[in-house]
Amino acid sequence: MHGAVSHSAIVLVNLGTPDEPTRSSVRRYLKQFLSDPRVVEIPSRIWWFILNLFILPFRSGQSAAKYRTIWTREGSPLRIHTARQAEKLHAVLAERGHEDVQVAMAMRYGTPSLPDVLDQLKADGCDRIVVLPAYPQYSGTTTASIWDSVFQHYARVRNVPELRLVKHYHDHEGYIHA
Length: 178
Prior knowledge:
single chain, alpha/beta, four-stranded parallel beta sheet, 6 helices, 4 strands, 49% helix, 16% strand, globular
């Protein structure tokens, strides 16, 4: 809205995790993850058969068993730690006088999904968004895949917020010092 005060947000995006350490949840997660052409660069028709006839039927149960060994009472360790990082980032920003900057976490694959988080930020009135991958170095399979998801989401949105996409920060002095 013209003349309104801008509201800013940072979205910390991690790769993803299944919702539960069960065969069906892991299968859903693996299907989403392994169907991304940025992750698997095999012709889609060939890959569809490999994924659906070999990988998903067998790997889902094996992976679920492995997830159960690391799962906590709070849930997925990756989701828990990413949420804590987002909370700490918000606290640091608040200490530095930016308490009005919202910080959210999202998963590229799984939940909370990046499109759902972007929708929530829009509902919260955020019109300036920084998308911050949890991985410091650029990779097509991670960073570019996040960007694909952001662009696909906003291709269906009439009023797109101001966006900043962080490509890499592996060589930033602050990251190295930390």
